[in-house]
Design goal:
This protein has helices spanning 2-17, 28-41, 72-78, 96-120, 131-139, 161-167, 189-192, 202-213, 225-234, 258-267, 277-280, 282-303, 311-316, 319-338, 350-364, 391-399, 404-432, and strands at 45-50, 82-88, 125-127, 143-150, 170-174, 217-219, 240-244, 270-274, 369-372. The protein is an alpha/beta fold. Strand 4 (143-150), helix 6 and strand 5 form a beta-alpha-beta unit. Helix 2 packs across helix 16 (391-399), helix 9 runs parallel beside helix 10 and helix 12 packs across helix 14 (319-338). The chain is globular. Mean pLDDT is 93; it is low at 1-20.
């Protein structure tokens, strides 16, 4: 393991010094208590939490205990200090009508995030624009909101919108999502072999420079490998992968292979390891879902309750429809939980997730690895299924021998260091004119 190799010399010295004396082993209770201390002292930061604007109203908002994976109460319970709320826009047509609709969608999400932090709950959560803001707000005992843009599609063909988005609070942006944008090819081209730009478009190359100029971190989680490699070459500032894992451990197109990882390291960037079940271990996830769905169908027939098995149908529901559906199937899910021990296949869990962190640390170093969940966008693993369970990630890291300094780097230090460097490059570029 990473930690064993790192501390082997120190371990040898301790053994030699303590030869003939007894060293008490740490109990599980002591380990948990030590991990809790680490968790409380560091800043925990999750770079990807999707939102729905219908959850940002007076009647329904994140100050309440909603059935979403992220709310302010869940962040408090789990000790998650910083949530990056995402201005996500699905890929549509590359024409004026598509660009206009995408821009309108993006602005509605910017407005929703500002409403929560500036109007609804300013005593509970505050929007941060810099790493200094993050530390100040946490020091004041409040939660922190930050903004990332998933898909540059809302920019349209107007490069000036990058500065506008920066002024609205965006601190990272990806150049594509699932489907090729006007800026870059998407990773989804690996599935059908169809590409639009062979990497970045001319406008995408211009956007890289403009993002550097205005201090917005470039996110390489969704674009194609070719687009990402071109971005590493062009960017004057470090970049991030806001929610991806290691392709060497799981061959999904959303994960980064070693060539990209080494380029990311050379660029000075950070990969925010994502706790998305199928990105962590798609075979294990598939087997568990099939076994669980089979048992769920069996119970549904016994109880006469209909269930939704198509994820697309679930994501097509409004929050109100999802809540009503959850209430309707609650008796079924309670029975399923009671009989879960009957399922031989186990779900993707926190340990599987941290295996990716271990691999990334071993491959590119402790300074280039972070954490993300993709909550409310399909993310979550057993043990970290919502923000209230955030401590379990720290516990697993401590269990594997990571020091407090290392845990702090992984949870927030590396990402905030990149943000500082990106903003320093922006200041230089703006001074150049």
């Amino acid at each position: 393991m990473y930690s064993l190799r790192l501390y082997a010399p120190l371990f040898l010295i301790v053994v030699l010094v303590c030869a003939g004396c007894q060293v008490a082993e740490e109990t599980e209770e002591e380990l948990v208590e030590r991990a809790r201390g680490v968790h409380e002292r560091i800043i925990t930061l999750d770079t990807h939490d999707d939102i729905n604007t219908s959850n940002f109203t007076e009647e329904r908002n994140y100050t309440m205990d909603l059935p979403t994976q992220v709310t302010l109460p869940k962040m408090r319970e789990g000790g998650l200090d910083v949530g990056w709320f995402i201005v996500y826009t699905g890929q549509g047509d590359l024409d004026d009508a598509g660009f206009d609709a995408a821009y309108e969608n993006a602005i509605s999400k910017f407005d929703a995030i500002h409403w929560l932090a500036d109007e609804k709950a300013p005593d509970e959560i505050e929007l941060a624009y810099t790493s200094d803001d993050v530390r100040r707000i946490v020091g004041e005992g409040k939660l922190v909101a930050m903004i990332g843009i998933e898909n540059g599609y809302p920019m349209g063909d107007d490069i000036g919108r990058i500065q506008e988005f920066q002024e609205r609070g965006a601190r990272y942006m990806s150049l594509a999502h699932n489907g090729h944008s006007q800026l870059a090819d998407s990773n989804t081209g690996e599935g059908d072999g169809v590409w639009l730009h062979d990497g970045l478009s001319d406008l995408g190359r211009e956007a890289v420079a403009e993002l550097n100029k205005w201090g917005i971190m470039i996110d390489v989680s969704h674009p194609s490998k070719v687009a990402n490699m071109q971005t590493f070459e062009l960017s004057r500032a470090p970049v991030i992968a806001s929610h991806s894992s290691a392709r060497a451990l799981n061959g999904h197109s959303r994960n980064m292979d070693d060539e990209q990882l080494m380029a990311l390291k050379a660029n000075g960037g950070v990969i925010q390891t994502v706790a998305f079940r199928s990105y962590v271990d798609m075979e294990k996830d598939r087997a568990y879902r099939e076994a669980t769905n089979a048992l769920r169908q069996e119970i549904s027939q016994e109880m006469g309750i209909s269930v939704v098995t198509d994820r697309r149908a679930w994501f097509a529901m409004t929050p109100e429809q999802r809540e009503a559906y959850a209430d309707a199937i609650a008796p079924l899910e309670e029975e399923l939980a009671l009989r879960a021990a009957d399922i031989e296949q186990k779900p993707v869990n926190v340990a599987d997730f941290v295996d990716h962190i271990d691999y990334l640390v071993e491959t590119i170093g402790i300074d280039h690895v972070g954490i993300s969940s993709d909550f409310d966008g399909g993310g979550g693993v057993d043990g970290w299924n919502d923000a209230s369970e955030t401590f379990n990630v720290t516990l697993e890291l401590v269990r594997r021998g990571y020091s407090e300094e290392e845990v702090e780097k992984i949870w927030s230090g590396n990402l905030l260091r990149v943000l500082d460097e990106v903003q320093a490059v922006a200041a230089e570029m703006q001074a150049e004119g």
